[in-house]
């Protein structure tokens, strides 16, 4: 009884892994694991490391740290919001 139950479990596991046996099974898992590492795990680790390094640099010397993003321009000066565009410049002239 136990051997038939164990055989069914082994058959189920073998079929769920695509029916590959031996070296092919190991090779397919190695390829899938490598792809998963470079697509999901490594980028997440790199992002965490970069954030940690950025925080440490900002704490160590606040004047040395420079944000890499460009500042957001004022929408009134750039003309994205109409109305008071360059009102201050005209009054000064």
Question: What this model shows, in words?
Answer:
This protein has a domain at 21-67. The chain has helices at residues 2-16, 23-60, 75-78, 87-92. It is elongated. The mean pLDDT is 75. The chain contains four helices and no strands. The chain is 68% helix and 0% strand. The protein is an all-alpha fold.
Which key features would you list for this structure?
4 helices, mainly alpha, 93 residues
The topology string of helices and strands comes to: HHHH
The chain-level mean pLDDT equals 75
Largest sheet: none
Shape: elongated
Total count of helical runs of at least 4 residues:
4
Counting helices, strands and paired strands, the structural category is mainly alpha
Write the layout of secondary structure elements.
Blueprint (H helix, E strand, L loop, with lengths): L1 H15 L6 H38 L14 H4 L8 H6 L1
Task: Give me a quick take on this structure.
The protein is an all-alpha fold and 93 residues long.
